[in-house]
Every structure is written in C-alpha cells, then in structure tokens.
User: Which sequence fits this backbone?
C-alpha cells in the first residue's frame, strides 16, 4: 500500500486537533507539510515532527508528492483554497462552511466536479459515537419512519461580538451543524424552514444584526419535521441533545459528562455538568471524521460528507435568516433557484 | 364552617374521577346530587352514596341548597350549562374547553362576570406535582428568566375518527392543554403562533380535515418562545415532558413511570414504559385540582384557573389552526379582535 | 356476600393508616370498633365514623359480630393480643414483630394453629410496588437463578435512645424488614448469618447496648447469598434500594422520589431527595397489604405473610445479634433448635 | 530535561497497552527496548518503532542507558524481575500482584528498599476518572466520615479453568483490585476480613479448589466497613460500581457505557450494556496510571501506589481465603505476623 502524503493548512484549534490525530493514529499516511500564516506556528510543526512548514497555501501545494490537503484555515479562505487545491489535483478535506455566499459555493463545487478530486466537508458531529448510534437505530428501522426530530444545541457562551459580525450570523455559524445533523439523521431533504429568533443573551449581538436564541422548524420532503432550539449561552455548559420520534418508537441521545458520579447530601442529589464545549464533547468525532476521510482516500470510495451536503446546509441557513427577516416560512427552492 | 353542597354533571371517565375525589377527600363538602343523561348512571350515584340522581341539568340546578356544580358533560354542553349555572347563582367548575367557538366563550364569560359567580376551568395539568415543581423553580428564579419552553406531548393512540370530526381538531382538543401549560410555566401572554402539521398516524384523520402530528412555536410578549411537539400516537405510550431553559439554568420534568426498576440482561438494560394515559399519569392532578377548587370556594379566594385562561388557550388553538391553513405565523390579536 | 366486621387495636401512626385505608377502600368490610389505651383517641374513632371506641383489648373482643382484628398496638402487647384474639376465634392481622422472645412467638403460633384462625404479619414492604415488581421478575425467571441479593436500608435518623433501649435492638427493630425482604425475594430459607456492626451515629446508642451501622451477610440453603447494609442515619433521607443478581441477569429497584425533576445550573445538575421516611415511601404498600389481608379473608385463601414468616425473621435477627456478640457466623438452627 | 529511557517487559494485552501509551503520550520519555519470550513479538516492537527487541529479562536490563522498566510479564515472573531490576538500579513499574506468596513479596520489597529504587504497583483502577472523582469527594469531605463502602465487581465471564488453577484463586486474582480500591477510597487500613463464597458459575472452578461468587466484608481500623460482591460471570457484562456512604452524604459511581442512548419502543425502554471488559472500561486508567508513574520519575516524588499497597492487598486476599476455608472472620495481623 502506498503511503498517502498529507498537508494541513491552518493550525488553529481545529487544525491542531486534526494534526494530532493524523500524526498518531494512521499507518497509511504521512503528514509531510503544514501551513499557517503565523510564523510562530513553526513550533507546532516541530512538536509533531512535520518536516515542512510554510506560510502560504501556494507554497503548501507546491510541496512535492503531496496527495491531499486538510483545510482548517479561517472561513473566508475556504473557497479559494479548495479551488486552488482542486485545480492542483489534490484530494480535499475542508472545514465547514465552504463559504457564506451560496453562489461562490456553487462555483467552487462546479470546479471540484470538473477536476474530479474528492472533497469532504468537516461536519464532525456526524462522526460522534452518540449521534452515529441514533442514526444507526434509524437505519435499522428500530423506530420506524421518523416523524419528528428534535435537536437541542446550546453553547456555553457566545463568541466575541467582533467574531459575530463576520460569522455570517448564528444560523450559518452555529446552527449549520444542526441543519446537517437533521439531514443526516433523517436521510431526507429539507423543503421549508421557519425560524423564530430573539436577542436574549447580549444586546450587542442584536446591534451587530444577529440573533442569539432561536427555534427553527424544518419540514422534510415527506412532511416529517425537525425542530432545533439554539441559544448562544447556557450557563450550565454545552447542551447537545438529539431525539428522533418515529412510527415505531423513539431514540434519544443525552449530553456527555466527564463522569457519571452522583452525590447525595442533605441539600439534594447532584452530579457534574456536561463536558465543557465542542473540543471536549466532540473529541472522538474529530478523530473518527479524519479516519473516515483517510479510509475513503485509501479505498477510493465516496466521501461520507460531500460538497452537496455543505451546499444544502448553507441553503437552509440562508432560508432561516430570510425567515426571521420576513417572519414567514421560506422554501429551500427560493434560496437555491 | 358551613358544609358546601356540590353536584356533579356528567358521569363519564372524568366525571367519575371527580366524584370519587369529592366523595373521599373533603370534610368541608357534601356531594348532594349527580346528573347524567344515561339512566344506567344511577348505579354510580348509588356506589358513592349520592342521595339524588337526575337526568337533566335543569333538575340538577333545582336541587335545594346546592352551592356549586362540577361540569364534566360533553364539550358541546359546557357553554349552556355554565350559562345556566351562573344565572342560577352556583359556583362552577367546568372541564375544558368552554366551547369551540370563541364568540360563544366570550359571551358565556360575560354572563359569568355579570352574575358574579366563580368559574374554574379544568386544566388539570397545572396541578400535576411534576409540572408544579417546575413552575415553582421558575417562580423562585432558580433558572433566571425563561427563554425557551419545550413541551413534548404525545398520546398513546388517536381517538376514533368519529370523535376527531367533532373535536374541534387536534389543537383545540389535545394541544389546548399544552397551550395552557406554556402560559402557566411562562407566566406571560402569547402574542404569535406558528404551527406546522402533518398527517402521519392515520390518513382518515386527514380526510376528516384534521392533523395528527405537529410542531408549534409560540412567541410570548417578551419574545421568549415555547415549542410544542405533538403526535396522536406514540407506540411506547403517553409522552408528557417539559423543559424550561432560562438565563440562569434549565429545569426538566421527565415522564412518570409505574415503577423505577431496571433489568439488565444479555440483551441490554431495560425498564417499563411510562404510565399508560392521562387517567394514570394525571391521577394526582385531578385530586389536587378539585382540592384547590374547594379551597378557593371555602376561602373565598380567586380560582387558580379562570375563564380568561380558558379563553386564551382557545384563541391560541384557533391561531394554530389558521397558521396551518395559511402556512404563516398568526398573531393572537388577529383571533381575539 | 357477607360484610366482614373489623376492629383496629392501637391508633398510633400505623394504626391510623390502617384505619384510613380500611375505611375508604373496601366495600366488603365494615370497621365496627376501635381500641386505644388513650381516651383522646376517641376523636380518631369519630373522624372515621367508627361507632364503638373502647380502651381495652378485652372490651374490643367482646364487641358483637366481630370477625377480625387488626393489631397495631405496641410490640410488647402483640403476643398477648394475638393469643386472646385467637382464643376468641377472630381472624388476625398483626404488626411485626410478634414478640422479641422466640419462645413466646413459638408458643403463640402454636395457639393460633390450634384455634385454626388465620394470622397475617405486617411485613408491608412485600406489598410495595417497586419490590413486588422485582419479586415478579425473579418469579418469571427474568434473571435466572438468584445468586446475590443486595439490600440497602438506611433511615433518615435514629429513634430516641429511650426507644432504642426497649426495641430489641436494631436487628429486631429495623433490619427485621430487610430479613423478610431477603426471604421474600429469594423464596428460600436462610441457613446462616454473619453480621458486622458498629456505633457510628450516636455513642448513646452504643451505651444502650445497641449498634447503628451494620453489614449483614445471609447465606441461603442453596449457598446463594444476600447482603444488607444498614445505618440509622442517612443525612440525605430514607434510602431503600434492592438489587438481585442472578445467573441470567440483574434487577434493581432505586429509591422513590417526590418528583423526577432535574435542575441544571452553573453549580451542577441536581434533583430532590428521596421520599422522606416510611410513611411516605411505603404509603402504597400499607394500602395493598391490608387489601390482600381482606382478600384472603373474603376468599378463604392463605395469608400472604404468615406466622412462620414472622418467626423466621426474628430468628434471623437473633442470629445476627449473636453473630455480632461472638464475631462469628451463626447458623439459624443454633437459634431455632 | 533529560529524557527517561524506558523498557517494557512482556507484550501481552497489558504490555501492549502500556507500550502504546508510552509511545504516544509522553515527550519526556523514550521507549528504547522491549522484551518478550515469544519471537513473534518482534513485530510489536517494529510497529511502535522500538529499536531493541530481546527475549530475556537479563538482556533487557543490559540495554545501555536504561532508566526504568515496566513489567507486564506473567505473575510468576514479577518477583524475580523486580528483584533483578532493583539490583540493577532501575526504577520499576510492575503489574499486580507482586507474587502469590506473602513471604516472597516481603523479601522482594526488602530488596527494593535496600536498593533505593522506586517501585509502583499497577493498581490501575485508582486512576480511573470515575473512581478518582469519588476519592476526591471523600478527600474534600463532601460526604463526611466514610462509614460503609460498597464495591460491586463482576466479570463478564470466567477465565479458563486452566488459568484458575494457577491464578492464586479469585481473591488474589480478581478481588485484589477491589481490596486495593477499598483501601484507596477509605484511606484507612483493613484490620479484619470475613468472606462468604460459593461456586455458582461453573462446577469445574469448584473442582479446581476455587470459588466464583462471593461477598466479602472488610473492617477498617476505625470500625467503618466495606463490602465487596464478586461474581466471575455477569451475563450483562462487566459490572464495576462503587458507593461510599458517610456521615454527611453518599457518593456513587455507576458503570460506564459505550453510549448513553435510550430507545423507547412498544416493548419498553432500553439502552446498551456497559463497556465490555477491563480493556474497554479502564482504558483511560491505564493511560493515566503510566502518566503518574512517569510524572513521579520526572519529579522525583513518591509513587502513587507502592510496594506496601501491593503487600497489603495480598494480605487481605489471603485473609479472605482463610476466612472461607475456616468460615470465620480473620484478622490481618494473623496473616502478616
């Protein structure tokens, strides 16, 4: 078996996670180069014994014998990097979202298609053991035909307002994971979106033109439904739950906890809070995600999450924004046409 | 203390529960008469040692020294009986809903107001120990300002289609309890409703012009929200859960179970299903409800659920119906004006 | 069907519970008399509309047409009252224990046997819905052959030391319920006991010659085992749990709670403490217990808990005391022979 | 900081786990050699890029610049290897037990003491996050003074009878972990043991002179108690639970599960079984254990589990065996003197 040569672009929080997982867990690959705009990231390259460190994506693509790139740079670089990598004939893993503009996403996907390279989108939650188990139960028909999917997704705290301003808004930044989860669990296409939102956490978020609290109803092509509730701030921590109600039963995934102890005292019965945030909660999913990317490369099979998945989640996000703006249900075909 | 003389009208399932509770648990009252259109119900009167059994509401109101009536007859008699009882100067407990027509409800409430009698509406779930505990936590500010209320309300099976046809539709028949619960927990008025519904359980329900599966988003006057998910059939039984998410925490009430055992076998870990249906699940609430009615009579205090509560739940239900029909959010003021 | 005429002797906490249940829930019986040494208890007779109130057991037995007595007086009267009732030909329900002296118990059971009356012992926990469900699972072979039974039984607080002194000791006063539970769940006879005990709650209990904390290992005739852990004081309340481990699985009963809410705050996830003490925790069991007594009277069937059960629990308790005193395992046959 | 050079002896299941963890997670160390009697294990050395593979312990100790050895070979080699390593001046991590003979253990510990090397014993469960959390609660006085410790420890299935014969018996092979856990949680010395045991799983285990099911009561120096229940076969999988009851509260650790999903169907509510066996259940503990060994080496601090801990667990195990043989409580001083 030929070793696959991989490069990582962007060494922020997620980039380092992917680099760590790629370095440790795979006999089939070799990380031959990393890229980051900051010179200080050379230290990360050294820590993981990566022989080449560069500061531009062009240099990265020029590294000899490179087979694939893992793109973890800021969102506004995703589309360009994917386009360049595709034109250079490299296989691509890219963090979500591809871009905040639907037109640009469509353009890039067209280029990817023409070049024939593979593209996987980083919807890591699909690879979370808890949610995978629920999807499995749906696939095995353990609960019959899904009728109502419920996703609770609340962050422990909001990002800085400066970030909020460039994030594309809560629906494209945070809820986009939940949109993809709804599609993943259901296995069906979303045809309509109604979103009701408010500013409850921080008035500055509202002043920045965004919302921080929302309930979003999705209708699938077969009239089954999903409902997502979001908040940018849950004082008790990261709240990530899933429930699927079907014609033959219901399956639930609760939060994950650092431990399962229970303490009984005069004051009541208590236990610890959920795992703090996405790095802790979805640790296993990042590893599994990159494993399935490598497996698809090695086996030459389809990517488990592809560009179309990225496109549709963005379209749902844009429909949700329009729904809030116009306070009416919005059809996906209004967005995609 | 003067004994309060009470009569019960209607000896169906709920009527018998109220009669049993009234007969057993109160030293302050006496059930002096019962009424049912069916002659066979004489036996029920005998079983509970009620001295007078009649078959018309007129006869019932004519029973000497009667102080109050508990109306448990079919929905289409509620408005007339309440009107008659009010004009006769009797205190009134009436099962929900007062009527399916908003105009008729308003008319009856006007009459009740004029006569000065007290009227309590039978939203029994407010008296359920689980939900009362959650309301208490909200009142005690244990979770800060409520931002998202989530109500899961699914029945073990749909009623006969013949009943569906005269029920006023799922929103007025089943969800009306959830609308009241959202108002009770929040303590705020609903200003807008968006309902998305489908026929997933039985096509005959659709042919009868109704729906059996729905997600309803309520917006309160302060832009906080509630979301209700309903289905007429959950194969695993009666599913009644509540969650309130607020600025300082979250409170949840899970289903109630006949017992708490866990069985570990080679096949997995299992436990019993929730209590079967409303008679089992809300047994304690019926008792507590009638106790608070009696207490309000004895103490001369306000009724814990009044005509306005009944009116507003119907208005929300009508808004939900209109929302589904026109696929758009509907303001309560559109309904009430 | 002939109405059964019943009298209650002793109107303390348990006596009042039995009187309330007997008064409310049974068409087949009539409480025709009650007895209590305190004149003030006349008020209780009045409250429950019992026509005859007397202050001696002799007078009670003399009430005409009396069929059965429910004995809830202090422990040191049990044996005498049972003997008298048996000689008078009355059916008997008696609270546990029959007596603290094994010889006296054997003597009384002999008399009961000669007179041919029925005797039921008040081991109410056998009628608790949680534990009944576990017994059912054992009977239905859901967990195969029981190998280890684990009983946790801790009180919220110790009784007054004055009571401890006359109680016969923790094993005969408190653990006796657990001994009966072990026998009930197992369905087998205990052959040997090892008890390890300490004074951890209150040194005065130790000075009174008793213990307040213990672990007791029971060995059944087939070498399967049970282990009981006791403490007179659990700061978090009444702790009553049961677990049966068998060749094909395990069944557990957790504590019962006033409600099932969960509260998530910055400080952790918490819930309410278990139901406070035996009156709350075993409320349903007292009702079911007396129902099965009445049913056995009406149907002429065997009593669900008989004198032999009472005798054996006392024998196990005495073996436990001897085991602590001599720090060695004690065979039941040492006690019974 | 000087790099610590480490060797691993024995590449069976546990040896491979330690090798994997040592290879991946530590910048401070280097695995410079491994040893295994089987030639085929060369492949494992290659997989983890260990430069030196030898087949005898003598050769291993002769590897230049070696600082410490991790001994994972069969139990009957532990004492000799520890002795040799100590005499060669190497720091030592050794899997439990040191030896089945108390005299040999004492002898080896004497040598270790003389040579001044450090010795850590592999009681990995002390490093399990669940149990560590419970110990923390005890240390932080969250439950007051511990009075009763309860350990449930059941394996998914028995080892082969051939292994049982050389294992030293269930108490020294399996329960030894629980003895150490009781000491770790309590922080006190055990003074007396009573064990009641039976053969319930497989008669051949009995024929081999061992038991497979037991309840063991430990008494600590302050008369607080611990109770352990063991079975070699739980059909529902590996059952590892812990409960500490104290003067101010109770702390519990439940089993660990591969996921937390719940499935509701017509047949009941169910979930997956616990993690299969020790490799899955204690995965994190092996990593943490070896991390604390390395930390103690680097920092020059005391080992978190030392030879004395190993000695005392064996003494408790021997007392338990004697207790079963003579059916009486056995003092630890009877064993150690």
Assistant:
């Amino acid at each position: 078996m030929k070793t696959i040569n991989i490069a990582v672009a962007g060494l922020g929080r997620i980039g380092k996670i992917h680099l760590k997982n790629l370095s440790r867990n795979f006999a089939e690959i070799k990380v031959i180069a990393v890229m980051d705009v900051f010179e200080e990231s050379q230290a990360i390259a050294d820590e993981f014994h990566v022989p080449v460190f560069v500061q531009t994506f062009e240099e990265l693509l020029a590294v000899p014998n490179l087979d694939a790139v893992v793109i973890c740079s800021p969102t506004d670089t995703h589309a360009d990097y994917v386009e360049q990598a595709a034109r250079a004939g490299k296989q691509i893993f890219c963090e979500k979202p591809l871009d905040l503009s639907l037109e640009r996403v469509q353009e890039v996907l067209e280029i990817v298609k023409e070049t024939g390279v593979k593209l996987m989108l980083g919807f890591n939650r699909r690879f979370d053991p808890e949610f995978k188990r629920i999807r499995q139960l749906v696939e095995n028909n353990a609960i019959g035909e899904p009728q109502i999917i419920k996703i609770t997704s609340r962050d422990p705290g909001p990002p800085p307002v400066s970030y909020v301003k460039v994030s594309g808004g809560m629906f494209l930044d945070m809820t986009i994971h939940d949109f993809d989860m709804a599609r993943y669990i259901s296995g069906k296409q979303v045809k309509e979106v109604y979103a009701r939102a408010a500013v409850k956490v921080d008035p500055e978020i509202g002043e920045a033109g965004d919302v921080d609290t929302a309930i979003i109803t999705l209708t699938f092509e077969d009239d089954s439904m999903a409902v997502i509730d979001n908040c940018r701030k849950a004082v008790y921590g990261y709240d990530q739950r899933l429930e699927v109600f079907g014609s033959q039963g219901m399956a639930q995934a609760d939060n994950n906890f650092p431990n399962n102890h229970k303490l009984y005292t005069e004051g009541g019965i208590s236990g610890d809070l959920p795992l703090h945030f996405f790095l802790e909660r979805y640790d296993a999913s990042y590893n599994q995600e990159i494993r399935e990317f490598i497996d698809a490369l090695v086996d030459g099979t389809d990517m488990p999450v592809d560009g179309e998945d990225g496109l549709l989640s963005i379209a749902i996000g844009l429909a949700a924004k329009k729904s809030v703006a116009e306070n009416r249900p919005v059809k996906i075909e209004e967005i995609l046409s």
